[in-house]
Amino acid sequence: MIERLQRYFDVDWNQGDVLSADELKRRLADKDGALTAGDPISADVLAAAPRLRVVSNMAVGYNNFDMAAFNAANVLGTNTPDVLNESTADFGWALMMAAARRIAESEHWLRAGKWQKWSYDSFLGSDLFGSTLGVIGMGRIGQALARRARLQYCRSSITTVRASHRKSRRS
């Protein structure tokens, strides 16, 4: 991406962590646009960058943008909504599986050298098959999470998802 941008623009590229406000002010002072990854863009930063017209956030959120300051400075702020819904739902599903099956706990126990032999009651955890999953909030990520299970829903603030392979009569 950087190489493509450099064909058309002078690119000042930060490969490190989020920049301080002072460093942002210095580096954005003569820039027309910026692509950020969580850098806080405040009224002070915008005031120090009079040429700046657009700041694109390489993230779903825009809580690092002072939107009132953007509007006052007539600077466009953009983000990338919907790009991580499925990935975030995968992580949610993975965390449920790991908690139910005691994955982290057993991995730490194994790496500590405590495993000696198989035992019928060692870190069995719980089955998720046939369990009911409650999804509170059916926003983009809640819906993505529900797609990973068989969905049964009601129109209320709490939606029930049933992880099951049995066919419903209403399928």
Write a brief caption for the model.
The protein is an alpha/beta fold and 171 residues long.
Mind explaining what this structure looks like?
This protein is α/β, with parallel strands linked by helices and 171 residues long. The protein has 2 domains: 2-78, NAD(P)-binding Rossmann-like Domain (Rossmann fold); 85-162, NAD(P)-binding Rossmann-like Domain (Rossmann fold, 3-Layer(aba) Sandwich), CATH 3.40.50.720. Helix content is 36%, strand content 13%. The protein contains 7 helices and 6 strands, in the order ααβαβαβααβαββ. The chain has helices spanning 2-8, 21-28, 43-47, 67-73, 85-101, 103-111, 140-147; strands at 33-36, 54-57, 76-78, 132-136, 150-151, 158-162. The strands form 2 sheets. The chain has a 3-stranded parallel β-sheet, with helices on one face. The protein has a 3-stranded antiparallel β-sheet with strand order 4-6-5, with helices on one face. α4 links the parallel β2 and β3 (76-78). α5 (85-101) packs across α7 (140-147). The radius of gyration is 24 Å and the shape is elongated. It starts with a helix and ends in a 9-residue tail after the last strand.
